[in-house]
Amino acid sequence: MKALIIARFLIVGIITFLLTACGNQQEQSSKEESGAVNYQATLMEQLIGAKPGDVIEIPEGVHSIDRSLSLTVDGVTIRGAGMDKSILSFKGQVSGAEGLLVTANNFLIEDLAIEDTIGDALKITEGDNITIRRVRTEWTNGPATENGAYGIYPVQTTNVLVEGNVAIGASDAGIYVGQSTNVIMRNNRAEFNVAGIEIENTINADVYNNIATHNTGGILVFNMPHLKQAGYGTRVFDNDVWENNYRNFAHKGTPVASVPAGSGIVINSNDGVEIFNNRIADNNTANIIISSLFSTGYSDKAWDENFDPFPESIFIYDNEFSGGGAKPGTFDLEALRLIMFGADGRFPDILWDGYADAAKMQDGTIPEDLRICMDNGAAQMLNADLPNNAANPAIVTAAHQCTLEKLPPAFITQLP
Amino acid sequence: MTQRGLTFLLVLVLLATGCSRQPPALEPQFFQEENPELLSEWQMLRVEGQSLQLADGVTPFDLNAPLFTDYALKLRTIWMPEGVQGEMAEGGIVNFPIGSVITKTFYYQQAEEGAFNGRVLKRSYIAGAVDPALSKLETIRLMETRLLVHREKGWEALAYVWNDTQSDAVLTRIGDARRLILVDPKAIDAAERETEFTYIVPDTNQCAACHVQNATTKILSPIGPKQHHMNKDFSYGGKSVNQIVHLQQIGFLKPDGILRPAANVDWRDENHPLDKRARSYLDINCTHCHNPVGAADTSGLFLNPETENGPQLGLCKLPIAAGAGTGGRLLDIVPGKPDQSILVYRMETVKPDAMMPELGRSLAHKEGVALIRQWIEEMAGDCA
């Protein structure tokens, strides 16, 4: 009996040995690759494995990242030690269309920099309650067509606070909010981008206390066709918008490629826009431009029945203008300036392309609440008459001296 | 020796020989919560000698038009536990039950025999065989096996990267990047005979970036195993059977349900109308994002089969937020003018900020681009 027990014991041992011998070979060889630990892998693990409520700290230093980062978990905070201290550098990026892509709600990112991404720096889509604060996005080689398109880029988001950020060198827009609702964008600085700050197809946005300078266009309020929502209700106030005269370095074909260098604030096909209390100076095409998608290379074959290309209910008041308009950024506009105002003359502060919706007119005039109104002291408005190939451009200040009911402030739910 | 002693000895001998020749049969496992570190723990498939074996019940299938992934070849399988069944649903969807495990193994033919040197052969397609699924593994480089697992909390995506000895694959959450050289000895242009590229294994979030086909609900689901993609014949045990019929015969799918009438086509098959081939190609490569509720709905460009010819399909449409993706061109599709169409540029380029799809390729799909070029070339009309 005893011998049998020993024999059994032995046999079990041998069997176990044989079984594990079979398995071990495989396991050893397959696990040896998981050794290399670097900051990129650590950060990716933190982002992918994040749980709601997590705070992911980006330590001080320049961290090289070569692939796109992404976050899909709600309620996460990413926090650095400062926009000049915690730097994610994508200089060696080999794959991915953006630096950091976030598809999540209740997201806060603050106090860090994202540099030199191949494509967009920080893209956030379909999120509610988004805060982007004191983040710097920059292409450190300076403005160039090869730079990524967007710096800070929330799209299809709601309740968005974008404050204290710095954006430099984007080949489309430095700080952009698109297809979003309830947005506050304040205390940001945008320099050397094609579009400094852009609000597109967005409902209820307040854009204030920002600085936009040395961009091609300072602050843009645009609507584009074929999208789910048309934008309206944007207030642009208390901003400093000067010398946005940088040459347009956007990729041909992008809507911002049609923005002339020297554009201060541009409204394109958007409705219900107020521009007030801004300091707008020395933008060489015009300090304010009001235009329609018709003057940006739109094809009639791609007509969108639901799209309204006419800028309506625009109210410009109490802005402080100086200089500007003396060196328009396109050949056609420069020719128009020379013809109308002479070699030393300048465009007035407000330039309108002249497109208006004939279908909405009553006895040849636009209904009062849809007008383009100005109540801005001595500032003048030029109708460039582009619908008729600039046949009859004219100063139309008197016809547009009017007021509109003021818009309510934008409201976001999570404002601290 | 007693009879019992003899039995023990026999068992021992069996085990000892079994170790080297006949390992215990694979028994597919479903893990409800846990993500095993090794692919072998799922017991769906396994390398035995120089072949990749599928477990009983792990059923291979194919797609009418597959997604392009840097010319990688793919072996797809589906398995589900006893006692559950999938069913056909609206819109070409197949509802696979909880417990289903779909695998996709990405591999290349080595350009040269012997130890792998990073050089892989450009092959457009190898028909999948069942037993063994892949033979002559000494000439094949297994890259990764991706799993879609239908758990109680929903579908989850896992990626396993094959080790150098091809004995097993290891789970990765953060993906991987491998430098490879694509070798095409038959290329007429000498410059195309060798192309360096980075093969990317997606990280977990990137898996979701494609498999979340509704960007609002953010629900992850399979892309390929839909009726219009799977409605084709496949050789099971030497007998060619419609894949959906086969899945019904083996009890994976209920025998009735809504069958989507139109199948996609093999876009390489010139017997099919050009428009159908092009739309099938765009469907499998683009629809998961470019649909009215997908991640690319921000662009207003929809390439799903239901979208009619018009601006939403890209005809004469201005791009939205395309950045470098325009390639200096003005409109998504200009009929008759592939070289003026942004769609073609984004398929041709390999620049990460401009190319489409954004994920899943580092190389251009020459043959796919040629198809879309021809489609636009022969398209009537203009954008004047």
Secondary structure layout plus pairing:
The complex is a heterodimer of chains A (416) and B (384).
Chain A: H1 2-31, H2 39-48, E1 55-57, E2 61-64, E3 67-71, E4 77-79, E5 86-89, E6 95-102, E7 107-115, E8 120-125, E9 128-138, E10 152-155, E11 158-163, E12 166-168, E13 173-178, E14 181-186, E15 189-191, E16 195-200, E17 203-208, E18 211-213, E19 217-222, E20 232-237, E21 240-242, E22 263-268, E23 271-276, E24 279-281, E25 286-291, E26 312-317, E27 320-322, H3 331-341, E28 350-352, E29 372-375, E30 381-383, E31 394-395
Parallel strand pairs in A: 1-4, 2-5, 3-6, 4-7, 5-7, 6-8, 7-9, 8-10, 9-11, 9-12, 10-13, 11-14, 12-15, 13-16, 14-17, 15-18, 16-19, 17-20, 18-21, 19-22, 20-23, 21-24, 22-25, 23-26, 24-27, 25-28, 26-29, 28-30
Antiparallel strand pairs in A: 30-31
Chain B: H1 3-20, E1 45-48, E2 51-54, E3 59-61, E4 73-79, E5 86-88, E6 94-95, E7 101-109, E8 119-121, E9 140-151, E10 154-162, E11 169-172, E12 176-183, E13 194-201, H2 204-211, H3 227-230, E14 233-236, E15 239-242, H4 243-249, E16 253-257, H5 274-286, H6 342-348, H7 366-377
Parallel strand pairs in B: 5-16, 8-12
Antiparallel strand pairs in B: 1-2, 3-4, 4-7, 5-6, 7-9, 9-10, 10-11, 12-13, 14-15
Helix pairs in contact in B: 5-7
